[in-house]
Amino acid sequence: MGNYDKIIKTSEYGITTGSAATAAAVAAFLSITEEVSYVNIKTPIAELKIDVDNSKKITNTSGRACIIKRPYDDPDVTCNIKICADVEIIPTSKIKIKGGEGVGIVTKPGLQVPVGEPAINPVPRGMIKDNIKELLPDGKGVEVTINVPNGEEISRKTMNHKLGIVGGISILGTTGIARSMSSEAYKESLKCQIDVAIAQGYKDLVFVPGNIGENFALKFLDVKRDQIVQMGNYVGYMLEEASKRDVEKITLFGHAGKLVKIAAGIFNTKHAIADGRREIIAAYAGLSGAKRELIQRIFESRTTEEMIDILDSETMLYEVFNSIAESIEEKCHEKYKMDFDVVIVRMDGTILNR
Q: Where in the sequence is the domain holding 23, given as residue range(s)?
């Protein structure tokens, strides 16, 4: 924690699940002796003022409180969820943190939290302890149980199933503040898949854009699900993270609409950032000997699947996509010192390169 010049109003930003859990714990503790409508908590970078949704005294040594994780300008599935804490004063100087309803349990190695423990990351644990410690009488401790009433349902919309976190969401955050339209939390969850795979002994990984690629990879490749890493649009970021770890080989497996962009050195495949699919496929068709009319038809196509159909009708499909796959491997080798394979598919799962 640190020294702060001012309290940041959470209406200006979002708060992490870690900050919500911390605020709920503080409010639950305070509710034993007073009515609470808001709390101030310290995070690693700021002090936050957070409204309390509800709180109540349970006994002379216990209390309960809930925080609503208010929405902000970000497509965060945890916006508007309720995060609660039950607090019980205990006759020791320890602060114990437990996961209750809707908080996931870690079942695979490789994460920041050991297997069998609730998925409450180190920074949120530290925030809860540091903020509660300032309130405790000498010689007293507290047991804090974090609950997320709809956590198990919400977790189905997250990466938790890939990371081996079951039964609920994770309590996360490194700063306590969730900034609008930030992709950092999402990238962190993607990166964790690599750590989980490595912890289970895998050095040969399959990187896919998403669920469709994962399902086809399981169908066509002799791999386990834990070897498959979803990279989203962050191809370059994920390859960089893999290169920092003990990964020996990566197979890039996915739909042509995503993977062909890498052949042009595009390592963030989000459509709004970079497209170029028609230019890339048209260029490689030309390099493979396509006539001007065919190149024009490809260039005027609206979808990648339409371009694939045109090449297939001209018996140029494999020639073009073999060339694209080779270029993808070359582009990856230029930046990252690992072995690479590339498998490009269309929407029905047909493999386009040999």
A: 7-178
